[in-house]
């Protein structure tokens, strides 16, 4: 298979920085490739990274990923591939997997009377797509991110940025109906405290990022609250334990949910959504680079930098591994 583009994910940075113990020697799980098989027309495919039968088996984490120009088909389990329609530009299809995760969150959130009050912690690509989904559903969305340069970038560069209530240090939202946490793992302890404080009683906390027990301990007395994510994996929703009710240490009742992976149906829906609004989603891709330059940007991210050496904001990096076919 010829790879066209692969997106750099926050979990890739965590693996490269040694924050996660994943053993894959080749990173990458968000991407689009061109599959050629004897006797069949060439097909565009995107990747479903998580094994629906064993969610510990993950492309680019537990086995080698897609940051390479040619990907041997024999290395890929059949559940990893989904054929998708052509999209111009083709590289935009590399956003299918993160957008599918966003759609999963909103399936868990379910219908809300608009305008509900939504808070999103984290202004990376998934956080921004979560915020966009909230705006598209007619809700009032607050985006919480500590970086002033990131907040300025999204207000100036994104078509929907001015519709967000951008908040930083000391300006947390209040009276939220839903709080969605999309921050890196090291920031989860403070984010979960802020988010639960901002929720109304019986509000909903959505864990996109893993919440380790130590990070949850200051907020929840109940051990293992973050294990709720394991109840909703690969597009499935546990009707009984997929959302749980818990008390914070201050006595506030909140509902907690979360998820891991996505389904082929969610990936299909993501591809359709990208096709309906390529300009809005394409604006999230701030860097399209060759593999050599990608190494520099990965190192910058591992060192905690949010801008490249020219001072440009690093939001979504796509590694271009083959020609954009313009299909």
Describe this structure as you would to a colleague:
This protein has about 325 residues and is of the alpha/beta class. The chain is built from nine helices and 13 strands. The protein has two domains: about 1-95 and about 260-320, Alpha-Beta Complex (Quinone Oxidoreductase, Chain A, domain 1); about 105-260, Rossmann fold (3-Layer(aba) Sandwich). About 25% of the residues lie in helices and about 20% in strands. It has a seven-stranded mixed beta sheet, sandwiched between helices. Strands 4-3-2-1-13-12 form a six-stranded mixed beta sheet. β2 and β3 (about 45) form a beta hairpin. The longest helix has 14 residues, at about 95-110.
What's the structural blueprint in terms of helices and strands?
Blueprint: E1 2-7, H1 10-16, E2 30-35, E3 43-47, E4 81-83, H2 96-109, E5 117-121, H3 125-136, E6 140-144, H4 148-157, E7 165-167, E8 176-181, H5 188-198, E9 199-207, H6 213-216, E10 243-247, E11 253-258, H7 264-276, H8 278-282, E12 285-289, H9 291-302, E13 316-320
Parallel strand pairs: 5-6, 5-8, 6-7, 8-9, 9-11, 12-13
Antiparallel strand pairs: 1-2, 1-13, 2-3, 3-4, 10-11
Helix pairs in contact: 2-3, 2-7
